Amino acid sequence: MRHYKIAFDYRLENAGVVVPVTATVEIYRSGIYYVVKDISVGASQQKSVLSDIAIRKIDGKWVHRDSGKATPLSLAAGKAIDEEHRKQ
Fold it and tell me: What are the sequence ranges of the domains in the chain?
């Protein structure tokens, strides 16, 4: 299993607040889906502030693996994953 760190801005729904976060991404089944975990505010990485999420890309859109629906979190994390892959 391969893993790496990402950083992205997460817009809190209905609050108009943008929070910089960092997380660890684990790739499962050769990229079929990704688990985003250890989601922390800023670069501190001291305490996870959100639950782990499993996401995958369907038709160019990052969605939650279980529901197939996109959320601001899945879209922001997915965008950071795409940016990390472009660097490689």
Answer: 2-87
